[in-house]
Automatic annotation (TrEMBL):
SUPFAM superfamilies assigned: C2 domain (Calcium/lipid-binding domain, CaLB)
Protein name: C2 domain-containing protein
Keyword tags: Repeat
Gene Ontology terms for molecular function: calcium ion binding; calcium-dependent phospholipid binding; clathrin binding; phosphatidylserine binding; SNARE binding
GO cellular component: axon; exocytic vesicle; plasma membrane; presynapse
Source species of the chain: Periophthalmus magnuspinnatus
Amino acid sequence: NGTFFMINTCSNEYLRSLGCLSLTVDYNFPKKALVVTVVGARGLPAVSQGSSDPYVKLTILPEKKHRVKTRVLRRTLDPLFDETFSFYGVSYSALPDLTLHFLVLSFDRFARDDVIGEALVPLRGVDPSTGRVHLTQDITRRSTQVRNERHVCQSCLLSSKVAPTSIGNRLRK
């Protein structure tokens, strides 16, 4: 409908921090789809040789059901992605309970990609029913809660595997 609202939660400290992420949130009522555009980021820290090769992974929490990522932009600290993702089957009434999790990474051809930081955007209080909402959010260090959840899950998986002694007994038979 052309209406455009802006909510700025980016601090002026982004130049000394991990940067700031810019995005838009909209809702397509006929298609029952949440529409998120990753516009870009500014002030990202250099990962190597004075630059980064950034990209963004987006997950909708708490289910972690929807996962997407932007393309990698080479040698920039102020990437403009302008990539739109539609998440179908997300009811409008569920929006206040959802949080958008943006993980900002720098591509590394020879090793694991470097995590620059993350931005969590709760959709409670964001009302895209009257038009597209533009948001900016500080990128912060990756939270220990997210890392600990992954560590706990890996620990659960490891503890549910067969004990090494029983594997050895099976191999001898």
